[in-house]
């Protein structure tokens, strides 16, 4: 999979698991999935910008393991990073905590 184009219409989707799709870089479509509670982007190394998921007010689980390019912006409006697991977030940017060289 190289793109998430077309997902925006699945507004009742509760969980999305995209595993090791290194070509995916844009989460704009995911940001329209307002019912999403579980987002797993394990190994999607091309993702850098998490701004689109700021609209996911129902999100309770976010897995960014092996998303080496991601820098968490704790000011993304609408996301309470403290409530998201298994991602431990501290300070103004964070690594995934898995020991990988982010």
Any descriptors?
Leucine-rich repeat, LRR (right-handed beta-alpha superhelix), 3-stranded parallel beta sheet, disordered C terminus, 0% helix, 102 residues, little secondary structure, globular
Protein architecture, described:
- By secondary structure, this protein is mostly loops.
- The chain has one domain: Alpha-Beta Horseshoe (Leucine-rich repeat, LRR (right-handed beta-alpha superhelix)), CATH 3.80.10.
- Helices cover 0% and strands 9% of the residues.
- It has strands spanning 15-17, 38-40, 61-63.
- A three-stranded parallel beta sheet has the order 1-2-3, with no helix packed on it.
- Residues 87-102 have low confidence and may be disordered.
